[in-house]
């Protein structure tokens, strides 16, 4: 596992995701919540906490919207790449990230897409620059 650089970020996100999924694997989850959602929420929230960036629960869920619609493998890979993009933009696979963000957003209905984009832009979510 890499420690520094873009691969270190990716590795840390994957490790955090697995940790959160394993913690909640045999616990009851709120109705309609999947382990994939818990994993994404946990690894993004942890990344922000370790960087001393406080986000509300609502902000985290909103920022995760396009990633939540993707398959677990694609959603996690895209979220990890998103963090690379936020922290080391020149080292990110922007094409893959952009494709995955657009794919995730396309899985929302038209009204959800419009609302998500407005709220995301108001909150200055970095992914809005790629879609």
Explain the overall architecture:
It is a single chain. This protein is mostly helical and about 130 residues long. The chain has one domain (about 5-130). The protein has six helices and no strands. The chain has helices at about 5-25, 35-50, 55-70, 70-85, 95-105, 110-120. The model has no long low-confidence stretch (mean pLDDT about 95).
Quick take:
By secondary structure, the protein is mostly helical.
Tag the structure with descriptive keywords.
single chain, mainly alpha, 6 helices
How far from one another are the termini?
Answer: 31 Å
Structural class: mainly alpha
The description of the largest β-sheet is: none
Uncertain segments of ≥5 residues (pLDDT<50)? none
**What is the H/E string?**
HHHHHH
Question: What's the Cα radius of gyration?
Answer: 14 Å
User: How many H/I helices?
Assistant: 6
- How many E strands? 0
Structural domains: how many: 1
Produce the secondary structure layout.
Elements: H1 5-24, H2 35-50, H3 57-68, H4 72-87, H5 94-106, H6 110-122
């Amino acid at each position: 596992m890499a420690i520094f650089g873009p691969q270190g970020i990716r590795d840390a996100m994957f490790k955090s995701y697995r940790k959160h999924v394993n913690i909640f694997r045999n616990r009851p989850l709120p109705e309609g919540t999947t382990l994939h959602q818990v994993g994404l929420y946990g690894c993004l929230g942890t990344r922000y906490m370790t960087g001393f960036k406080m986000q509300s629960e609502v902000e985290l869920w909103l920022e995760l919207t396009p990633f939540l619609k993707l398959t677990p493998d694609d959603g996690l890979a895209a979220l990890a790449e998103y963090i690379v993009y936020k922290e080391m933009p020149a080292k990110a696979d922007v094409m893959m990230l952009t494709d995955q963000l657009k794919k995730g957003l396309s899985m929302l209905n038209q009204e959800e897409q419009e609302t998500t984009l407005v709220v995301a832009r108001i909150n200055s979510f970095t992914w809005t620059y790629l879609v």
